[in-house]
TrEMBL record:
EC number: 2.4.-.-
Biological source species: Parabacteroides absconsus
Molecular functions per Gene Ontology: glycosyltransferase activity
Keyword Transferase assigned: yes
SUPFAM superfamilies linked: UDP-Glycosyltransferase/glycogen phosphorylase
Domain Glycosyl transferase family positions: 182-352
InterPro entries per UniProt: Glyco_trans_1 (IPR001296)
Superkingdom of source: Bacteria
Protein name (Swiss-Prot/TrEMBL): Glycosyltransferase family 4 protein
Record keywords, A-Z: Glycosyltransferase, Transferase
CDD domains: GT4_PimA-like
Length: 377
């Protein structure tokens, strides 16, 4: 752990997981650290497991951030450890991200007088479950604000039988603009410039719908007789079986020729810049940072109409949406984009303008910091 040498105000950022890659959320936190440093405020990042991505940790350290790994062993021990951190520092705000067990950090923070206690919901909650309603009714009294990464996520809370709904608001995440030469990136990653390259950035968890994409590929090949495309799948399994299941489905469908598995990488913007179309057939989403990045690369998106996707993709303008669990509809959309370069160009240009208008990294981090009370010190 990096030690803060001064008793300056500090923000505690509870991640609730580790860091396997230098992705959109990690870049968001680095920008948060940079802006806090400009204001003379420190950042302490609390991971649930040891972070793997060393370049991400190096950037945090270079900006003067502290970080610590605090695995959850029991409610009482976690509560005590967080309490010790708060007592030993001048904590201005605590921010809970993933991990329901982090509610104990919010409880400790309230009892120890931390003024700003923020909880961000990154996923679309299933408010049909009694357990979920019970959990959020328990969490909300300990928050000063409940931030949602999309309006759709916020609406799920507002339509549920919850108390303290006045604490719920929407704050978008954001991504940093970039430019990489398309031909150069195609050469770097060995992508065929004679076909339409369709990118998909997703872990292999079933919630991301990569299996739906594979079934859509089968339809493209068999029904539409499409051959001039390749799927560029970026990501990996959160366990080995998830990836094994997808490879088994690929073999079963006989579509291996059309799928390029790139694995987990820290260079997603470079690969997106080498592609022509983006697709995200998720079963549930808060709001995908990958669509924001694909939009900055001027890619039109073919995606499922679920969660915050409807806010990151303007249907018919920056991409085309379909119902989830519908490989036939997804194949139809992809075929339109594969065969119409003019449509790809116009939608891609619109997508970039939309991302710049709503998902600018620096601007949206600045909005988040206001919830920490940094403008009041």
């Amino acid at each position: 752990m990096i030690k803060n040498k001064e008793n300056a105000p500090i923000i505690i950022e509870l991640i609730g997981m580790g860091a396997k890659k230098y992705g959109g959320l990690e870049k968001f936190i680095v920008e948060e650290c940079r802006q806090l440093k400009e204001k003379g405020i420190g950042l302490l990042v609390v991971f649930a497991v040891e972070p793997i991505c060393k370049s991400y940790i190096a950037d945090l350290e270079n900006l003067g951030a502290e970080w610590v790994v605090l695995p959850f062993t029991s409610n009482l021990s976690y509560y005590k450890r967080i309490g010790q951190m708060i007592k030993s520092r001048n904590v201005l705000a605590i921010h809970k991200n993933f991990g329901q067990k982090n509610i104990w950090a919010l409880i400790a923070a309230k009892q120890l007088g931390v003024k700003y206690r923020i909880s961000t919901e990154h996923c679309l909650p299933d408010m049909s479950r009694i357990g979920a309603i019970g959990y959020y009714n328990l969490e909300l009294p300990f928050c000063t604000e409940k931030l949602c990464v999309s309006k759709t996520t916020a609406e799920a809370f507002l339509h549920a039988p919850l108390i303290y709904k006045n604490k719920i608001t929407t704050e978008y995440l954001g991504v940093s603009d970039f430019f990489f030469d398309k031909i150069e990136m195609q050469r770097k990653y060995g992508l065929d410039h004679n076909v339409v390259n369709i990118a998909n950035v997703a872990y292999h968890n079933p919630i991301k719908g990569v299996d739906v994409l594979l079934m859509a590929v089968k339809i493209l090949v068999d029904r539409y007789k499409a051959d001039n495309f390749r799927i560029i799948q970026i990501g990996g399994g959160q366990n080995a079986k998830q990836t094994e299941d997808l490879h088994a489905l690929e073999q079963q469908l006989g579509i291996s020729k059309y799928v390029n598995w790139m694995g987990v990488t820290d260079y997603v913007p470079e690969i997106l810049s080498a592609c022509d179309v983006y697709t995200q057939p998720s079963r549930s989403e808060g709001i995908p940072l990958s669509i924001m990045e694909a939009s900055l690369a001027s890619l039109p998106t073919a995606a499922s109409r679920v969660g915050g996707i409807v806010e990151s993709v303007v249907d018919g303008k920056t991409g085309i949406l379909c119902n989830t669990e519908d490989p036939d509809a997804l194949a139809d959309i992809l075929y339109k984009l594969i065969t119409d370069s003019g449509l790809r160009k116009s939608m891609g240009d619109n997508a970039r303008m939309h991302a710049l208008a709503y998902f600018d990294l620096r601007r949206n981090v600045s909005k988040l910091l206001k919830h920490y009370g940094v403008d009041k010190i």
